[in-house]
Amino acid sequence: MTVYFIGAGPGDPELITVKGQRLIRRCPVILYAGSLVPEAVLEGHQAQQVVNTAELHLEQIVALLAEAHARGQDVARVHSGDPSLYGAIGEQIRHLRERGIPYEIVPGVTATAACAALLGCELTLPEVSQTLILTRHASKTRMPEGESLGDLARHRATLAIHLGVSRIEEIVAELLPHYGPACPVAVIHRASWPDQAQVTGTLADIAEKVRAVGFRRTALILVGEVLAAEGFADSSLYRAGHAHLYRPGE
Question: How far apart are the first and last CA of the chain?
Protein backbone atom coordinates (compact mmCIF):
# COMPACT_ATOMS: atom_id res chain seq x y z
CA MET A 1 0.00 0.00 0.00
CA THR A 2 1.27 3.47 -0.92
CA VAL A 3 -0.04 7.01 -0.54
CA TYR A 4 0.64 8.93 -3.76
CA PHE A 5 0.80 12.71 -3.39
CA ILE A 6 -0.15 13.69 -6.93
CA GLY A 7 0.24 17.13 -8.45
CA ALA A 8 -2.89 17.81 -10.50
CA GLY A 9 -1.39 20.85 -12.19
CA PRO A 10 -2.68 24.43 -12.13
CA GLY A 11 -6.26 23.77 -13.22
CA ASP A 12 -6.52 22.54 -16.80
CA PRO A 13 -7.19 18.77 -16.48
CA GLU A 14 -5.01 18.13 -19.53
CA LEU A 15 -1.96 19.43 -17.66
CA ILE A 16 -1.80 16.53 -15.21
CA THR A 17 1.09 14.16 -15.87
CA VAL A 18 0.56 10.78 -17.49
CA LYS A 19 1.74 9.08 -14.29
CA GLY A 20 -0.60 11.14 -12.14
CA GLN A 21 -3.57 10.33 -14.34
CA ARG A 22 -2.69 6.63 -14.38
CA LEU A 23 -2.54 6.49 -10.58
CA ILE A 24 -5.84 8.33 -10.17
CA ARG A 25 -7.51 5.81 -12.46
CA ARG A 26 -5.93 2.88 -10.63
CA CYS A 27 -6.11 3.72 -6.93
CA PRO A 28 -9.13 2.42 -4.98
CA VAL A 29 -9.11 5.49 -2.70
CA ILE A 30 -8.93 9.13 -3.82
CA LEU A 31 -8.58 12.12 -1.50
CA TYR A 32 -8.52 15.38 -3.42
CA ALA A 33 -8.31 19.06 -2.49
CA GLY A 34 -11.60 20.06 -4.07
CA SER A 35 -11.18 23.77 -3.43
CA LEU A 36 -8.41 23.91 -6.05
CA VAL A 37 -8.55 20.61 -7.96
CA PRO A 38 -11.31 20.36 -10.60
CA GLU A 39 -13.33 17.14 -10.56
CA ALA A 40 -12.49 16.67 -14.25
CA VAL A 41 -9.00 15.62 -13.11
CA LEU A 42 -10.61 12.51 -11.61
CA GLU A 43 -12.27 11.49 -14.87
CA GLY A 44 -12.07 7.76 -15.55
CA HIS A 45 -11.39 6.73 -11.95
CA GLN A 46 -12.62 3.41 -10.59
CA ALA A 47 -12.15 4.28 -6.92
CA GLN A 48 -14.35 2.78 -4.24
CA GLN A 49 -13.93 5.84 -2.03
CA VAL A 50 -13.62 9.45 -3.23
CA VAL A 51 -13.35 12.22 -0.64
CA ASN A 52 -13.17 15.97 -1.15
CA THR A 53 -10.87 17.07 1.67
CA ALA A 54 -11.59 20.80 1.35
CA GLU A 55 -13.59 20.80 4.60
CA LEU A 56 -11.43 18.33 6.53
CA HIS A 57 -8.66 19.14 8.99
CA LEU A 58 -5.29 17.41 9.14
CA GLU A 59 -6.21 14.76 11.71
CA GLN A 60 -9.28 13.72 9.69
CA ILE A 61 -7.22 13.42 6.52
CA VAL A 62 -4.52 11.39 8.26
CA ALA A 63 -7.19 9.11 9.72
CA LEU A 64 -8.52 8.37 6.22
CA LEU A 65 -5.00 7.60 4.99
CA ALA A 66 -4.40 5.29 7.96
CA GLU A 67 -7.70 3.48 7.37
CA ALA A 68 -6.80 2.88 3.73
CA HIS A 69 -3.40 1.59 4.84
CA ALA A 70 -5.07 -0.86 7.24
CA ARG A 71 -7.18 -2.15 4.33
CA GLY A 72 -4.12 -2.44 2.09
CA GLN A 73 -5.47 0.10 -0.40
CA ASP A 74 -3.38 2.56 -2.39
CA VAL A 75 -4.43 6.20 -2.08
CA ALA A 76 -4.30 8.96 -4.68
CA ARG A 77 -3.88 12.11 -2.57
CA VAL A 78 -4.45 14.79 -5.18
CA HIS A 79 -3.19 18.34 -4.68
CA SER A 80 -3.20 21.33 -7.01
CA GLY A 81 -0.10 22.43 -8.91
CA ASP A 82 3.01 20.65 -7.69
CA PRO A 83 2.45 19.20 -4.20
CA SER A 84 5.95 20.14 -3.05
CA LEU A 85 5.17 23.87 -3.37
CA TYR A 86 2.73 25.27 -0.79
CA GLY A 87 0.91 21.93 -0.88
CA ALA A 88 0.89 21.38 2.90
CA ILE A 89 2.10 17.83 2.35
CA GLY A 90 4.98 18.12 4.82
CA GLU A 91 2.78 17.59 7.87
CA GLN A 92 0.92 14.75 6.17
CA ILE A 93 4.22 13.04 5.36
CA ARG A 94 5.36 13.45 8.96
CA HIS A 95 2.29 11.54 10.16
CA LEU A 96 2.80 8.85 7.52
CA ARG A 97 6.40 8.36 8.58
CA GLU A 98 5.37 8.05 12.22
CA ARG A 99 2.93 5.30 11.23
CA GLY A 100 5.29 3.56 8.83
CA ILE A 101 3.00 4.20 5.84
CA PRO A 102 4.82 4.30 2.47
CA TYR A 103 4.34 7.34 0.26
CA GLU A 104 5.50 8.76 -3.05
CA ILE A 105 5.38 12.28 -4.50
CA VAL A 106 4.29 12.63 -8.13
CA PRO A 107 5.29 16.09 -9.44
CA GLY A 108 2.85 18.38 -11.20
CA VAL A 109 2.90 21.44 -13.44
CA THR A 110 3.26 24.54 -11.29
CA ALA A 111 1.13 27.67 -11.40
CA THR A 112 4.29 29.61 -12.24
CA ALA A 113 4.84 27.51 -15.36
CA ALA A 114 1.20 27.94 -16.39
CA CYS A 115 1.44 31.71 -15.95
CA ALA A 116 4.60 31.94 -18.05
CA ALA A 117 2.86 29.90 -20.76
CA LEU A 118 -0.15 32.23 -20.72
CA LEU A 119 2.11 35.27 -20.98
CA GLY A 120 4.14 33.62 -23.75
CA CYS A 121 7.46 34.39 -22.12
CA GLU A 122 10.60 32.82 -20.69
CA LEU A 123 11.38 33.61 -17.07
CA THR A 124 15.17 33.23 -17.36
CA LEU A 125 16.72 35.37 -20.09
CA PRO A 126 20.46 35.82 -20.72
CA GLU A 127 21.86 38.98 -19.15
CA VAL A 128 18.39 39.94 -17.86
CA SER A 129 17.65 37.38 -15.14
CA GLN A 130 18.96 33.88 -14.56
CA THR A 131 17.27 33.46 -11.19
CA LEU A 132 13.63 32.78 -10.37
CA ILE A 133 12.50 33.13 -6.76
CA LEU A 134 9.25 31.45 -5.76
CA THR A 135 7.90 32.94 -2.56
CA ARG A 136 4.78 34.19 -0.82
CA HIS A 137 3.57 37.22 1.08
CA ALA A 138 3.67 36.88 4.84
CA SER A 139 0.25 36.27 6.38
CA LYS A 140 -0.80 33.56 8.84
CA THR A 141 2.39 31.74 7.89
CA ARG A 142 5.29 33.87 9.13
CA MET A 143 8.30 34.23 6.86
CA PRO A 144 11.63 32.98 8.23
CA GLU A 145 14.32 35.53 8.94
CA GLY A 146 15.89 36.82 5.74
CA GLU A 147 12.95 35.78 3.53
CA SER A 148 10.80 38.89 3.58
CA LEU A 149 9.94 40.33 0.18
CA GLY A 150 12.24 43.23 0.92
CA ASP A 151 15.13 40.85 1.59
CA LEU A 152 14.49 38.82 -1.55
CA ALA A 153 13.94 41.91 -3.70
CA ARG A 154 17.54 42.97 -3.12
CA HIS A 155 18.54 40.29 -5.63
CA ARG A 156 16.40 41.94 -8.35
CA ALA A 157 15.70 38.45 -9.68
CA THR A 158 12.43 37.37 -11.29
CA LEU A 159 9.82 36.89 -8.56
CA ALA A 160 6.81 34.58 -8.51
CA ILE A 161 4.71 35.60 -5.51
CA HIS A 162 2.01 33.22 -4.32
CA LEU A 163 -0.90 33.83 -1.98
CA GLY A 164 -0.60 37.59 -1.89
CA VAL A 165 -2.86 39.31 -4.40
CA SER A 166 -5.20 40.58 -1.68
CA ARG A 167 -2.19 42.47 -0.25
CA ILE A 168 -0.98 43.86 -3.57
CA GLU A 169 -0.45 47.36 -2.16
CA GLU A 170 1.83 46.04 0.60
CA ILE A 171 3.75 43.92 -1.89
CA VAL A 172 4.31 46.88 -4.21
CA ALA A 173 5.54 48.99 -1.29
CA GLU A 174 8.15 46.36 -0.38
CA LEU A 175 9.37 45.92 -3.95
CA LEU A 176 9.49 49.52 -5.16
CA PRO A 177 12.76 50.51 -3.44
CA HIS A 178 14.58 47.66 -5.18
CA TYR A 179 12.91 47.26 -8.59
CA GLY A 180 11.73 50.81 -9.24
CA PRO A 181 8.31 51.98 -10.48
CA ALA A 182 8.92 51.01 -14.12
CA CYS A 183 9.52 47.31 -13.38
CA PRO A 184 7.06 45.08 -15.30
CA VAL A 185 4.48 43.09 -13.33
CA ALA A 186 1.86 40.54 -14.34
CA VAL A 187 -0.95 39.22 -12.15
CA ILE A 188 -2.61 36.05 -13.41
CA HIS A 189 -5.90 34.86 -11.95
CA ARG A 190 -6.71 31.12 -12.10
CA ALA A 191 -4.08 30.30 -14.71
CA SER A 192 -5.17 27.56 -17.15
CA TRP A 193 -8.76 27.47 -15.85
CA PRO A 194 -11.57 28.35 -18.31
CA ASP A 195 -12.03 31.73 -16.59
CA GLN A 196 -8.33 32.61 -16.42
CA ALA A 197 -7.56 36.31 -16.62
CA GLN A 198 -4.51 38.52 -16.43
CA VAL A 199 -3.49 42.09 -15.75
CA THR A 200 -0.14 43.51 -16.76
CA GLY A 201 1.50 46.77 -15.82
CA THR A 202 4.35 48.11 -13.73
CA LEU A 203 4.95 48.52 -10.04
CA ALA A 204 3.67 52.06 -10.47
CA ASP A 205 0.17 51.07 -11.59
CA ILE A 206 -0.39 47.35 -10.97
CA ALA A 207 -2.16 47.78 -7.61
CA GLU A 208 -4.76 50.08 -9.15
CA LYS A 209 -5.27 47.71 -12.09
CA VAL A 210 -5.71 44.70 -9.80
CA ARG A 211 -8.27 46.55 -7.70
CA ALA A 212 -10.14 47.53 -10.87
CA VAL A 213 -10.59 43.91 -12.02
CA GLY A 214 -11.31 42.62 -8.52
CA PHE A 215 -8.70 39.87 -8.13
CA ARG A 216 -8.76 38.87 -4.46
CA ARG A 217 -7.45 35.28 -4.39
CA THR A 218 -6.14 32.41 -6.53
CA ALA A 219 -3.74 34.65 -8.41
CA LEU A 220 0.01 34.65 -8.95
CA ILE A 221 2.14 37.80 -9.15
CA LEU A 222 5.15 37.78 -11.48
CA VAL A 223 7.70 40.59 -11.19
CA GLY A 224 10.81 41.24 -13.23
CA GLU A 225 12.40 42.70 -16.33
CA VAL A 226 12.01 39.40 -18.21
CA LEU A 227 8.32 40.18 -18.63
CA ALA A 228 9.03 42.99 -21.08
CA ALA A 229 12.64 42.44 -22.14
CA GLU A 230 13.63 43.12 -25.75
CA GLY A 231 17.00 42.89 -27.46
CA PHE A 232 18.43 40.44 -24.93
CA ALA A 233 21.42 38.27 -25.86
CA ASP A 234 20.95 34.83 -27.38
CA SER A 235 21.74 31.98 -25.02
CA SER A 236 24.82 29.88 -25.66
CA LEU A 237 22.74 26.73 -26.05
CA TYR A 238 22.01 27.13 -29.77
CA ARG A 239 24.81 29.52 -30.70
CA ALA A 240 26.68 28.20 -33.74
CA GLY A 241 30.11 28.67 -32.21
CA HIS A 242 29.22 27.03 -28.91
CA ALA A 243 30.52 23.47 -28.66
CA HIS A 244 29.04 20.89 -26.32
CA LEU A 245 28.73 17.13 -25.94
CA TYR A 246 26.18 16.75 -28.74
CA ARG A 247 27.42 19.40 -31.18
CA PRO A 248 30.99 20.39 -32.05
CA GLY A 249 31.60 24.10 -32.40
CA GLU A 250 31.86 25.72 -35.81
Answer: 54
Rounded to whole angstroms, the Cα distance separating 96 from 33 reads: 18
Collapsing DSSP to helix, strand or coil, 161 comes out as strand
| 103: enclosing H helix or E strand | strand 103-106
Residue closest to 117 by CA, chosen among 26, 9, 235: 9
Q: Which amino acid is at 223?
A: V
Chain centre to alpha carbon of residue 9: 8
For the chain, the domains span 1-104, 109-225
Q: 148 and 186 in contact (C-beta within 8 Å)?
A: no
Q: Which CATH architecture has domain 1-104?
A: 3-Layer(aba) Sandwich (3.40)
Residues 135, 224 contacting (CB under 8 angstroms): no
pLDDT at 137: 87
CATH code reported for the domain at 109-225: 3.30.950.10
What residues have CB less than 8 Å from 101, skipping those under 6 apart?
1, 3, 65, 66, 69
Q: Give residues with Cβ within 8 angstroms of 28, minimum separation 6.
A: 46, 47, 48, 49, 68, 73, 74
Average pLDDT of adjacent 10-residue blocks, the chain of 250 residues: 97 97 98 94 97 97 98 98 95 98 98 97 95 89 90 96 95 97 98 96 98 95 95 81 70
Tell me phi and psi for residue 233, to 5 degrees.
-70, 150
d(CA 229, CA 144): 32
